[in-house]
User: Fold these one by one.
Assistant:
Number 1:
Amino acid sequence: MNTPHTPSALSLAASSPAQRQRMRGVTLTELLTTIAILSVLLTGAATAWNKVGASMRLSSYSNVFVSQLNLARSESIKRNGRVVMCKSGDGASCAASGGWEQGWMVFHDANNNGLREPGEALIRRGEALPAGYRILGNEMVARYVSFSPYGGTRLASGAFQAGTITVCKKSEGPSEGRQVVINSIGRPRVQRANVNLCL
């Protein structure tokens, strides 16, 4: 009766070095070394991907903000009247405190006071940013941006208005951010920036 052929220790010992090399397995040390190298590479890739994702979110939020400013500017020209974009948490009235991250609204400011009064048309409402992100304007643009019928920016007093609004992720140290710069004729643009503090 024939039995299945199995290699014996004697036949393995008699095999050529090339055959023994092909039959050789992976040692535990080699396996652990490979796993360690892979974990280091994956950690580095995850960190890089997180930075890319954070940068893309900053770009997205700042681009949305700029598109709303451009809407307000074009509406002021179309309506031949003052249109304001102000920070607003409820979408009904301009907020006196807090940052732009709470949300904003664009409205036709018929009486040119920089505040939304009953009867003034609401054009667009911007939603709040996710927790952890901030939009902070310097003094000239901390509360609102007001566009004249010619598309330029003017304060409610009629004085010239320009400034910088910073979009950043909350951080107690230096971090990447975006700056929305509004120039003297009311045109906003976005630029990358290093933010020292974002609280």
Number 2:
Amino acid sequence: MSIREHLAAWVAAVVFFVIGAVWYGQFQTAWLAGIGKTLEGLTAEQGSSPLPYAIGFGAILVMCYSLSWLFGRMGVRGIGSGMLAGASIALGFLAAMLALNYGFESRGLGLWLINTGYALVGLTLAGGIIGGWKRAPA
């Protein structure tokens, strides 16, 4: 991978992560109800540990590097193509996997919509950033 591709993956990951802060801030009450916790209970469990945020950002970074690698192999170029590929991956893999898990875990549709919506928005925008970033000549 070129420096440009690394930079694109990191920028996409930061954007994806920031979207998560806004997304889950917006849907906090419904999300907490969906996971069966209160803000106080969650805070008591995690304290002020940065670990959930570090794990979350690491997972997003892996997704963005995976998108970059896939886009390079598939010849995805351009913002629109990147957004379409990111959305397709979010719906075709992540949304389906969450539905599979949530069905067996007896989790509600509302939680699935919140988590899937975040994956869809995040991967669509990350795909647009990575796809639209100028790649080094092949």
Number 3:
Amino acid sequence: MSTTTLTQGLFSLPVAERVALADQLYASIPEDWQREADEAWLAEASRRSSEMDADPSTEMSHEEFVAGISFKAKP
């Protein structure tokens, strides 16, 4: 079964079943993976903070950020 076929089938499940499945999938992720992911996000946030400290002109306001987001409708 292809990932596309599996995904389409899963998206057709009722919301409560999708949420339960998502919970089970998340619970199956090893704890050390989450720690590594958290450390990677923290390193990225620190890197970006250092960039902004070095050149404050790169910062943007919340309004500027939101204005730059384009939302695409799901097919």
